[in-house]
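look at this one:
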Amino acid sequence: MNEEILAGIKNALEHGFLIEEAANSFINAGNNPAEVKEVVSFISKGISPLPSLLKTTETSVQKEVALEKKPKSSRLKWILIILTALVVIGLILSFVLFKDKFLGLVIDPIFP
């Protein structure tokens, strides 16, 4: 049995394609129709996948999980940067608008 066809059809099924659509796609891509039909009957019977395919699937899932985690940490990073920038801009604006009061708070206690 062709493991590449098996993995490809399983991948297509996981992405919402019908088994007939996936099989036709593999046949149209130049694969042997007999091999494709063998894989389709294998999947239709519900036989458990080969161990080598389980390892490939687990690795793929781990990569997808890792990719999903990256944007979240990146988003958090950008949120913190933006919040810090807003606080700094607020402090600068308040100093510019009320600099006499800020200077009075600093100078009066030192030089009464």
